Amino acid sequence: MATYRTCKSLFTGIAIAASLLLTVGCSHSMPTDEQVQKGAAAKEASTGDQASSATPTNDGKMAMGAEAKGVNTNHDVFHSRSLEVPAGTPVPGLSVEVEEDSVRGWNLYVGTANFTFEPSKVNGESLPTEGYAHLYINDQPAQRIYGTWTHLPELPPGTDKLRVTLMANGHETITTQGQPIEESVTVEVYDPNAATN
């Protein structure tokens, strides 16, 4: 009976410690109300108060990711800052290609010059020559990219624009001469419903 109580107490303590570590170690600071309002105002000003991302886009396609489910991810608030490449620092270069996977989905290649993917340093010090990338599909945030090759299991049927933007570890968009360092590629995805309509 004493062994059971000792084990139960030990497991309870471990569970509490694990919860605490996950809560503290995996969370980032939430934006203040002022930051959220500024981000929303900036987005409204830049988009001309377009419809919510949970609605169909202008080309009739649906928004992707958490935004499509009506979840506020604060993406614009966390990524509205930029980091300019300073004079004298080699400007990062970017090339993007996409190939259909032989089994399912698509393989996205993101080649870089003067830039290193550093997934272990995300949320750390920001440098204009290292970090990660963001993938946008039809101008909707889709996912982070931490390396040269990324598999995309699905893309929406029709014409899809894939845009990749370089990001610093502190989640700033890396810019040169005030412009984001990004590349786009367009992919035609077979739509079985288009042939029957």
TrEMBL record:
Keyword Signal tagged: yes
Sorted UniProt keywords: Signal
Signal peptide stretch: 1-17
Composition skew (Polar residues), residue ranges: 47-58
Region (Disordered): 35-63
Name recorded for this polypeptide: Uncharacterized protein
Organism: Leptolyngbya foveolarum
